[in-house]
What we know:
Blueprint: H1 2-13, H2 15-36, E1 39-40, H3 52-63, E2 71-77, H4 80-95, E3 101-105, H5 111-116, H6 123-135, H7 137-145, H8 149-164, H9 174-188, H10 197-202, E4 212-219, H11 230-242, E5 251-256, H12 258-271, H13 273-292, H14 295-320, E6 323-324, H15 330-356, H16 359-386, H17 394-415, H18 417-425, H19 440-448, H20 450-467, H21 486-495, E7 505-509, H22 515-523, E8 528-532, H23 542-560, H24 571-588, H25 596-611, H26 614-625, H27 628-638, H28 651-657, E9 664-670, H29 677-690, E10 695-696, H30 697-731, H31 734-757, H32 769-789, H33 799-816, H34 824-852
Parallel strand pairs: 1-6
Antiparallel strand pairs: 2-4, 2-5, 3-4, 7-9, 7-10, 8-9
Amino acid sequence: MRWIERLVAFSSRHASSVALALLVASLVAAVFTATHFRIDTNSEKLVSQNTNWRQRDLRYDRLFPQQKDLILVVIDGATPELAERASAALTDALAQDKGAFLSVRRPGGGPFFAREGMLFLGTGEVKQTASQLIQAQPFLGVLAADPSLRGILESLSTMLEGATRGQTSLSDLARPIDALEKPLRQALEGRKSFLSWRSLVTGAPPKPEELRRFIEVRPRLDYGALEPGLAASNIIRKTATALRLDPEDGVRVRLTGPVPLADEEFGTLAERAGLMGSAMFAAVLLTLWLAVRSFRIILAILITLVAGLMITMALGLLYAREFNIISIAFVALFVGLGVDFAIQFTVRYRAERHRVGDLKKALAEAGLKIGEPLALAAAATAVGFLSFLPTNYSGVAELGLVAGIGMLVAFVLSIVLLPALIVLIGAPGEPEQVGYAFLRPVDRFMRKHSRLVLRTAIGAGVIAIILVPSLQFDFNPLDLRSRKVESVATLRDLMKNPETSPNTINVLAPSLAATGRIVDRLSKLPDVGQILSIRSFVPEDQSAKLAAIADARSLLDTTINPFGTRPPPGDDENIAALKRAASALRAAGANGGPQDAGALRLAGTIDALSRASPEKRKLASASIVSGLTVMLDQIRAALTAQPVSLKDLPTDLEQDWVAKDGTARIEVYPRSSASSNEDLEAFSNAVKSVAPDATGTPISIQDYGKTILRAFIQAGLLSALVITLLLLVALRNPRDVLFTLTPLFLSAFLTLATCVLLHLHLNFANVIALPLLLGVGVAFDIYFIVAWRNGATHLLSTSLTRAVIFSALTTASGFGSLWLSSHPGTASMGELLMISLGWTLITTLFFMPALLEPGAP
């Protein structure tokens, strides 16, 4: 490695020219990066499209493009009427914005389902509903003619007069009396409450699914932004706010789906970026100070680091034209690993400066003595990253290329630009030895008890190997996301109900005629719940249902469609209606019957409301009238139901289930919530046993995980092979290669065993720590093995150990800050990196010296 010595000496002699040339080059690179920087946040491009499962997904997206890149708006109402009104209003408002949205639709909503919705109920339920509407005819007639607080109270007064005359009993009116008392009392207290008119008519509390509506929004995405759908999501939220769709008014609007999930994940990643960056910068500065004890040298290291970063970014853009959401992480990798070369060089320079005194000669000597291990470490680390290039994990393959180039750039600048800067800055002399004299006793212990140390290490390795099979890999990407963000919390809420679970599977049939056979086979699977196809939207037993609806329509038509309606009442009219209702309640409740208490309680509330402020009466009106008009419109539409066949289905509904080429879609729901990895795998395997080409979230999660895991295994084996060959060529001694790699394998097993003991699962994010472990570990081992081959003894007390320790601490400062992230995946990456770095340092500092002792086996 004499060429490195000569290169360092050349840089020292021509410091001004070398520094100027490289700094100009880095400035040009910075300008190029600033003018050409782009980031593609499309996560679908992170895996090669050549895999079979991605080809299936792409085919499905081509057939049904309207179901791709969606924002799912989840609307929960305090009553079914509020949920329906809110979803209709928000859908209409969003549909007007053609610039932000490609499409806006209400699954299960709109004119078709409003008219034909009752036909999708069971026959008995349809007959019961029709009967309940007929029984409520007197009440409905008054409300339809006067849908106001006045109309409601006058209708109640009329029915109460019938109870007073003995035409009906007060117990028959218990339901409306009890239903009205709560919202009116809360209005009197200045609080909003909401009356469910559907429950008032049916006598049953609303089902959870009746309180929830969905809107599917397909936005125009900007993949040049970190959060491509953020602008569209903000428009939805602002529109909902403008329509007063908020909890105070009985409505909650939440966003989930692929677009908000991806956007909020990026937002979570950046949430503590300032804290993480500040912590990393402060820790790196402190570590550098402890390592080199010179602000001038620290300045030279930082300038070298920034120059290398700029050049690497420019080279990465020249190759890839744009970064992806994984490859941009090379910045942290460059800082964490690239500074290692600078520390190794400067610590060695300080040791030589103490020995020879002359600055330039010390730099040349440092180049001679650290050049070989530095070059090997850079090559081995670069190989660790470049080994991802042949894999199908495109996102990490791009990261591997850029980071691999970055390692080589960092090495070159450490032996060219850094020496020139040290000369120009004028680093002071080194009056003291750079090594750790206090570690000499440990050195002596290691030499004397090397066999004991090795036996201890072997024992720990055996225990680790026994524990490693218990290590678990979490394939579910949802577990990497923060549960606190709205999109994830909403998605997990939907997953509690199998009927709203997003974990559905799509099966494609070659034609509509072929769906029946496939549905029959799927329905026999124990893991399968609901199965939908376009035929599911043709109701069964229509003749009996339509007959019951027709009977109700013949009796209710003029009732719910009056010839005219009264104008909205003034406050005086509401007061008069309140007083009449209070009097009627007292008269009806004067008999001392069991229902009288409720009537008298409501009379007191209404009487107090008549004397209250106009604002409280407006609040009362809003509380009980808000859902009335919705219910009346729903009844009117439902009573116009007509026979439904496939040709009667809306065009957009048909397009959701049958593609232009005739391919028909079948949607399969899990029988349970299928939220655990085991449930998802069982559900996926069951459906694939019938339809091997099925697609959907549960299958994609499994295939995505297998692709990534296979990529890491391939990259690990390839990098191990190439690094071994590299070491064989460089060291020319199989025993020395074995000595270099053995501590690395030991630290890997100890890292994985520690994960088992800490219940830390491997996942798609933290698994990247494993190739980093390979790169960092092999670099440290190379430093020690080359020093040992050159005759160094008492390795722990030398400047090499100081360099390794502070290099590890600097790397820990860069990666350990990830542990502070509010993103669970990133935090787990930081945790695993710290664990692996700790074991790497321990095996390098203690196991390696014992292994190299003459008395060791």
